[in-house]
Design brief:
By secondary structure, the protein is an alpha+beta fold. The chain is built from 12 helices and 4 strands.
Amino acid sequence: MAASTLVFAALGLIALVLCILWIWGVLPQLRLIPDDTNLPFMRWRRITLPLSGALSLLAIGLFFTAGLNFGIDFRGGTLIEVQSKAGPADLSKMRAAIEQLNLGDVQLQQFGAPTDVLIRVAQQPGGEEAQQAAVAKIRSALADSVDYRRVEVVGPRVSGELVRGGVLGVLVAVFGILIYLWFRFEWQFSVGATIATLHDVVLTIGFYSLTQVDFDLSSVAAILTIMGYSVNDTVVIYDRIREMLRRYKRMPIDQLLDLSMNATLSRTIITSSTTFLATLGLFFFGPAVIQSFVQAMLFGIIVGVYSSAFIAAPLLIYLGVKTQGTEARAPTREHV
């Protein structure tokens, strides 16, 4: 089952439980955010905007220095998942047995339970037949000491097509989001949402570079999902800001943005926490094959909420969104 399918299934289950609780009359008694909450989001922009800029530069630096730990999907080669039959796996013994086969770069990594091991074998010269021959040699070397849970073989032609497809998918998604935002909002809102979305993508790629989690096709799916999640959260906040701009034409812009953020705070926390808890369950109980997707999603949910509140909304001030109250007090205002 695909990683994204598991996430949506978990979200659906949580939504069903919440509906049952609401029918029983339990949910109306819950109030996560008090009605009189008044957090000064715009006051914190002097810290959050420079911090986000520094983190983005750091993420870009990590990408060009540490790079991404490309998985079998993009590099080509063989991935074998085995489980030791006789207790915890002896990595040194397994590595010694495989190195005698002269298969080039071979990596062994323990994950999950002490008995589970991932074996990565570099792409073999000779095409698909050489890759299959490498798998047969490893099976012979390890004999009956392990159970084979998964074997994936990706040739050079397929890996190249997957790289091009993944890059094209991300670019098309970014372009589609830009078109949607351009027609959905005024240009200031479109620019703010675009910057916030790109901020999330850059930090997510930096997360992959820092942690060296496998970057494969599920990672591309994670980036696309994070982009959609971030844009959705930003659009909800921007809709409330536009509503407030029509309602309170004389309120100073920073106060209006604070009011809009606090008005959507309860919705943001409920939505993000529900998604986070569903993804957290996959992190602890999901199979190893989706961990690259799940870890990026956990990071992306936090970053998406942060960017909507502390990047997208404050940027409107610097992009020229004003009210009559802001213009009236502009000459004496020193903190904008």
